[in-house]
Specification:
alpha/beta, Rossmann fold, 2 domains
């Protein structure tokens, strides 16, 4: 039984097939692939796009989605094996995942890092526990990567450039300012998928302390070796933007200061000028801009950048619906495992 936890677990041919199916759903939204089937969507963190597009996507394919917010409208869950459960949690993931597997055909999980200890958060324990205990496919709705955003992003680029072949495009993944340290998930994902599709990728960030986890840097290097393109690192916005075809922005907290955020704040605040603005976009080669959203205007990117014809963030957000339908249809077509 396949889960959808990371695009790195899926071959390029399989990802291409999902993108082709997503493009087909974009042309013809209605289908019966989930007729009589259901998905439980577990949100440990807030969402606008993910929740709306998964619920709607299940409906458009004839299925049914049930949203649960553990600790809010569902019981708080324990994830440690062998835990003496005398704290807040009322039940263990071992029961939650197996019970849900008796009810539904798919389980989606959104669980962000706790932002205290990266050595713990990088193990992605919540979704890994669901994948271990569930008897139905589990879908990553954003944990320490965001694979659905990856597919939506690539589909938006392919449709903007009018070709599925993105090789030779100069791609800049730029850190941008935000007043709080944010998850590295979308940055990890952008690095993975841009290199997977053979682009010439520059990771632009304020200092070496903002480099991404070694696991994702290594995935990117392996992707370059397998799919061509290149990977470089820059701390110079003017040099990185020059000649770019794609600018993808995200803010994230420096892993070097994980859990000691008061020490990171002055560094972050000193790099407010990483905001994506018209002057930087003018250095690109008619470059397109995108962001996963939500986005704080005039903090991460200016109004002018967001409102320009070259901003494809809304197309990317729309594509979340289409790619998620493709993934749900693909996973639901598998034979059910024994519960
Ligand atoms: N991009 C994204 O996942 O949006 P939400 O957090 O609103 O779901």
């Amino acid at each position: 039984m396949r889960h959808f936890l990371s695009t790195q677990d899926w071959s390029r041919d399989e990802l291409d097939a999902l993108l082709a199916q997503a493009a087909a759903f974009k042309r013809t939204p209605a289908g019966t692939q989930l007729a009589g089937k259901s998905i439980a969507l577990l949100f440990f963190n807030p969402s606008m796009r993910t929740r709306t597009s998964f619920e709607l996507g299940a409906f458009q394919l004839g299925g049914h989605a049930i949203v649960l917010q553990p600790g809010k409208d569902a019981w708080p869950i324990e994830f440690e094996l062998g835990a003496v459960m005398d704290g807040e949690a009322e039940e263990h993931v071992a029961e939650v995942a197996r019970v849900l597997s008796r009810y539904v055909d798919l389980i989606g999980v959104r669980a962000f890092p706790k932002f205290r200890d990266w050595s713990v958060d990088r193990e992605d324990r919540v979704i890994q526990a669901f994948a271990r205990h569930a008897r139905v496919p589990v879908i990553n709705m954003e944990t320490i990567t965001h694979p659905m955003q990856e597919l939506a992003h690539i589909l938006a680029l392919q449709q903007h450039f009018g070709t599925s072949d993105l090789r030779g495009r100069k791609y800049v993944l730029t850190w941008t300012y935000h007043p709080r340290p944010l998850n590295t998930a979308v940055a990890n994902s952008a690095l993975q998928i841009a290199t997977r599709y053979g682009m010439d990728v520059t990771l632009l960030c304020p200092t070496p302390e903002y480099l991404l986890d070694a696991r994702y840097m290594e995935h990117a290097r392996r992707n370059v070796a397998a799919h061509g393109g290149s990977l470089s690192i820059s701390h110079d916005p003017q040099a990185a933007y020059r000649g770019a075809h794609v600018v993808y922005a995200k803010s994230w907290g420096a892993l070097a200061y994980f859990g000691r955020w008061e020490q990171e704040q002055p560094i972050r605040d000193a790099h407010r000028h990483f905001i994506v603005d018209e002057a930087k976009m003018a250095l690109t080669d008619h470059g397109v801009f995108s962001h996963c959203l939500p986005l704080r205007r005039n903090v991460k990117a200016t109004d002018a950048v967001m409102d320009a014809a070259s901003c494809i963030a809304i197309d990317e957000a729309e594509n979340r619906l289409h790619v998620q339908k493709a993934v749900m249809a693909s996973l639901a077509a598998q034979p059910r495992g024994a519960a």
